[in-house]
Amino acid sequence: MENMVDKKPVLEILIPTFKRSHSAKEAIENVLACDDDRLTVRCNSNGFESALEKYRNLDARVNYDSFESNRGFQENLHKLLADTDAKFCMILSDEDRIDVNEYQKILSFLENLSSSISVVICSISFKEKSGFYWRPNQKFSEIDIHDCVALNPIPTYVSGYIFRVDSLRDIDLKSFFSSSIGNVYHFSDVSLYLLPKNKLKYYHDRFVEMGPAIKYGGDGHSHKLPDSKTNEIKNLDLNPSIYGPKPRARQFFYRENLLHKLKGDIGYISLFIGKLNYVEFFYESIMDSENKVILSQNMILKDEALAGIYDSKENKEYSGSLTARFFEMLLHNPRYISDLIMITVSTLNKIFRKIYILHLIYIKNKK
Predict the structure, then answer these.
(1) Are the CB atoms for 62 and 34 separated by under 8 Å?
(2) 160: alpha, beta or left, given left = phi > 0 and alpha = psi -120 to 50?
(3) 308: left (phi over 0), alpha (psi -120 to 50) or beta
(4) Torsion angle of alpha carbons 158, 159, 162, 166, nearest 10°?
(5) Taking 50 as the threshold, does the pLDDT of residue 31 lie above it?
(6) Alpha carbon distance 343, 100 (integer Å)
């Protein structure tokens, strides 16, 4: 009997979408333009999209489905990851595209990938110009969980995450897609939880292309419609349920709690640096939220952040670790005091990461 595994597509592109059927259609057609049965596309919408219905039974290389109503980005992406039947799958925002001239190279890369690799992170190149929006350090091609936690080398940009599908089936995938407002970087957390037994590899060449940002729909702008007026103040007007001070506080405690649960799998130094990375990123995100979202007149940034602490404890997303208590102290302190503390923390963390990188390079050269 012929091996059915060999008939699986090598890579399936997963496109979650919401209220952006025009862009999703272009993303689907972009993949189909690569004439290769090894490459397929799967799209799911968080609501009925008449313009996308034709893809339900169009071609063996495309799968399309939709929810009756908006269930949020978490459930949308979970469905795509749970339903894919390819050897590898890659998340692609409906804003972004793949380079149709480079797909054969990445397919060959994946076909020859060591079985120890469960996650691949792609560079993000600009579509309309040369260069990269994000590209991993060229000195590293493969890392384990210790290096991943310490260096925080994977982006919060959702496009370009490639997973070995068999590895996804070895974890409780659904547990990473709870509806908590603290759960925003689930795709990154899934990657982390695949690494205790496996490794992560970078793909440095062009494949994922960053498209122009769409200022409505999706997850970051789900609070706006296509005809929403652009605000005239210097504010990005992002989704407040993700980028507001309270959600940002929730996100810190949610992710720190997940990381803390892996402490038995991660070296002490790596864990220490990794937690400082979280402290830095989320403290800055909270304090800068007034430039990212439009806060209501009666909303006080500090009160919102403190409410995030309370909610995290109520939802059992607070680890109680020294790092969690330190971050809670930062949010309680007067801002000028916490800002001074964070200058020191940030400086020390940069030094720790630099030493860690130099150590890795030394080990690599020694080999």
Answers:
(1) no
(2) left
(3) alpha
(4) 60
(5) yes
(6) 44
308, HSE (Cβ side, Cα atoms, 13 Å)? 32
Mean of per-residue pLDDT scores for the chain = 91
Token pair listed for 3: 């091996």
In Å, how far from its chain's centre is CA 71?
18
> Measuring CA to CA, how many Å separate 310 from each of 161, 240, 253, 290?
32, 18, 11, 21
Sequence-ordered list of residues with C-beta below 8 angstroms from that of 53, at least 6 positions apart, any chain: 64
**pLDDT confidence bin for 365, thresholds 50/70/90:** confident
Two tokens, residue 76: 């949308």
Condensed to tens digits (0 to 9), the pLDDT of residues 73-127 reads: 999 999 999 999 999 999 999 999 999 999 999 999 999 999 999 999 999 999 8
Tokens 């209501």 belong to residue? 296
Give the C-alpha separation, 61 to 57, whole Å.
Answer: 10
User: How far is the C-alpha of 289 from the C-alpha of 295, rounded, in Å?
Assistant: 9
Task: Please tell me the distance from the alpha carbon of residue 157 to that of residue 160, in angstroms, as a whole number.
Answer: 8
226 pLDDT higher than 70? no
- Banded model confidence at residue 229, pLDDT cuts 50, 70, 90: low
Give the residues across from 43 on adjacent strands. Answer: 15, 64
> In the structure encoding, which two tokens stand for residue 6, read together?
């060999």
Secondary structure (3-state) at 132: strand
Q: What is the pLDDT of residue 66?
A: 96
Q: Picking from 11-20, 190-199, 286-295, which range would have the lowest pLDDT averaged per residue?
A: 286-295
Q: Length of the chain, please?
A: 367
CA distance 253 to 307: 12
State the DSSP string of 137-204: -TT-SEE-HHHHHHH--S-S--TTEEEEHHHHTTS-GGGG----TT---HHHHHHHHHTTTSEEEEEE
First to last CA, the chain: 44
